[in-house]
Amino acid sequence: MNVLYIECNMGAAGDMLMAALFELIPDKENFLKKINSLFPNIKVHAMLSQKCGITGTHIEVKIDNVEEHEYDCSNHSHVHSHIHSNDHSHSHGHEHAHSHTSLSDIRQSIDNFDISDNVKHHAFQIYQIIAQAESVAHGQPVEQIHFHEVGEKDAIVDIVGVCMLIEELSPDKIFVSPVHLGSGNVKTSHGILPVPAPATAHILEGVPVYAGSIQGELCTPTGAAILRYFSDGFCSMPPMSISKIGYGMGTKDFERANCVRVFYGKTSSDTEGPNDSISELSCNLDDMSGEAISAAISVLFKSGALDVFTCPIYMKKNRPAQMLVCLCRSEDADEMAQLMLKHTTTFGVRKTICERYILDRSFESKKTDYGEITVKHGRGYGIEKSKIEFDSLLRIAEDHHLSVFKVIDSVKNL
Length: 414
Known about the structure:
The protein has helices at 14-22, 28-38, 103-112, 117-138, 149-169, 198-203, 221-230, 290-302, 333-343, 390-399, 404-411; strands at residues 2-7, 42-51, 54-63, 66-67, 100-102, 146-148, 173-176, 179-180, 182-183, 185-188, 191-194, 209-210, 216-217, 233-234, 241-249, 259-266, 276-285, 307-315, 319-328, 350-356, 360-368, 371-380, 383-388. By secondary structure, it is of the alpha+beta class. It has 3 domains: 2-266, no CATH class; 276-356, Alpha-Beta Plaits, CATH 3.30.70; 360-411, no CATH class. It has a 5-stranded mixed beta sheet with strand order 14-7-1-16-15. Strands 18-19-17-20 form a 4-stranded antiparallel beta sheet, covered by helices on one side.
């Protein structure tokens, strides 16, 4: 299994993430040619940079021949400020008249780019995360969130660039370290705000973070949104055989190397040992009706549970009861436990961390005489297996007014 691990010991910003991933790809010139073709008045350059004796890549983005960090872009956390990729330097002396760009404008821009539908989808989803965070932080509906035109331009370069690089690297899993936020305050045109900025704090809710001793903003909303969207888990580095390492450099100098570091390699799922972990939450219920338990299960599934089920049990005084079990990602455990407390009669929820053995999964669409079906493939531990997704069989049966058994017979030799 191909794994990308992102180390955020100095926070994360869009341009630094793009620079780190850029170091991993073989055809760097082609990537620069491609991304520059998307933005007529923007030039993206990759240059060597050194921090504390470590050499990496700094991505320079020039808008109308002016580098992005030269703009007055310190106020990225305000509703009407642009959202930008942080170079860890907020001392900007140039002021410009900015127009505003709405989320729908951004979507239209992304849709017009000559990039894959997959990259378009990822880029817009990341922007939605940022807009939602700004909406919560400032008490404004998402539809009223606007970004400064200059900020929208440099942020969209970073976001689209990262999505293009992720697509090219195509890791099976992406894991991220706990995120260093920095500490102190950041100066904006609307006053002094605490670090992390309100939008960043909202995006990283439920993510392991720490302030550290460095004064300054190390993680931006753009960087936080990219990490939140792509991460399959926030954890220490998993056991892996590293094949490539990339360093994405910021602009400002600190006592530590100001960079994002990424590791690309393989974890072997053909050997013994668990390769994943989840949380198992459970509680015993002897005073809820079947209808009420069903409603609670529905809430958990809609909130992102991996699986929810009940087991018949006997409790004290020989009362027949049900044990409600919720399987979820470890980072979602607190939220799921609160939902179980809220939507059931229990006064307590048990939590167990479960290591598990899982096959690497992929999905394939196949054509049949009745239409397309989805096939799930699994591989690992020396095992390969495939299964037709039952939902696609059921859909075909309903569309053609057939029994599901007839559809199963027609596709069993695929």
